[in-house]
Amino acid sequence: MATGWKGQYYRYRELFLNIISLYKQRRDLRAFLELTLSLSTIIIFVIFALKPTILTILSLYGQINDKKNTLESLNQKVSALQKANNIYSQNKNSIPTVNTAIFTNPEPDTVSKQILGLASKNGVDLLGMSVGQLMLLGKTTAAKTLINTKPLPDSAQAMSISISVKSTYTNLTNFIKDLENLRVPVKIDSLTINSSQTQEGGIIVSVITARVPFTGQQ
C-alpha cells in the first residue's frame, strides 16, 4: 500500500477518474455539473461587473443624504433670515433712536441737560452734579472700574456721574424711575438717602452714583 504523498496522489487520481467516468456515462450528472459551472461563472462575472455600479450607487446615496442635510440647514437659515427681516421691518422706525441711545464719545453736556429736565419734571431740587474724569479730546482710554461695580456689557466704557437731589419721597421715586428709563441708558451703582422732618413735611436728600456707557470709538 502506497504511503505518504504518493498514497494521497493515487487516492485523489482515482477519485477524479471515477468522477470523469461518471460524467461521461451519465447525462444527468453532466448536465448538472455544466449547469452548476455555468451559473457559478455567470455569478462571478455579474459580481465583478456590478461592483463598480454598487459602489457608485452607495456613494451617490451618501451624497444625497449630505445634500439633504445641507438643504435643511439652508432652509433653517432662510427661515431665520425671514424672521429677522420681519422684526427689522416692524422696528425700523426705532432703529435711529437705538443708534443714538449709546454715545460714541462721552457727552456730559447732553446728559446734564436730560437730568435737569427730569428734575424739573418731577419737582426735584438738584443740589449738585459732578462728572468723573474724562478724556474729551484725543484717543479715549479705558476708565478704571469703580470698586464694587460690575463691568458693563461688551466691555463698554462709562462716564461716571454723581447726582445730589432733595425732594419728597414720591417725587424722588418718580425721578429715579425716569432716570432709569432715559433714552441714554444709565446704570445706577449706589443710592444713599438721608431724611429729615421740616415744617413742610418729610424731606429726603439723596446722592445717586451712576454710570453712562459709551463705545469710545473715534
Fold and architecture overview:
It is a single chain. The chain is α+β, with helices and mostly antiparallel strands. The protein has 2 domains: 4-69, no CATH class; 101-214, Ribosomal protein S6/Translation elongation factor EF1B (Alpha-Beta Plaits, 2-Layer Sandwich), CATH 3.30.70.60. The protein contains 5 helices and 4 strands. It has helices spanning 4-25, 27-91, 95-101, 108-122, 169-180, and strands spanning 125-131, 157-167, 187-198, 201-214. It has a 4-stranded antiparallel sheet. Helix 1 crosses helix 2 and helix 4 (108-122) runs antiparallel to helix 5 (169-180). It starts with a helix and ends with a strand. The mean pLDDT is 78.
How do the SSEs run, as a string of H and E?
HHHHEEHEE
Strand content: 15-25%
Q: Give helix % range.
A: 55-70%
* Total count of helical runs of at least 4 residues: 5
**How are the strands of the largest sheet arranged?**
1-2-4-3
The helix/strand class is alpha+beta
In the predicted model, the low-confidence regions spanning at least 5 consecutive residues are none
The N- and C-terminal alpha carbons lie at a distance of: 110 Å
**CATH structural architecture of the largest domain:** 2-Layer Sandwich
Average of the residue pLDDT scores: 78
CATH top level assignment of the largest domain: Alpha Beta
User: Under CATH, the topology of the largest domain is which?
Assistant: Alpha-Beta Plaits
Number of beta strands = 4
Going by CATH, what is the homologous superfamily of the largest domain? Ribosomal protein S6/Translation elongation factor EF1B
Any idea how many domains? Answer: 2
Radius of gyration: 46 Å
User: What's the story with the biggest beta sheet?
Assistant: 4 strands, antiparallel
Backbone shape: rod-shaped
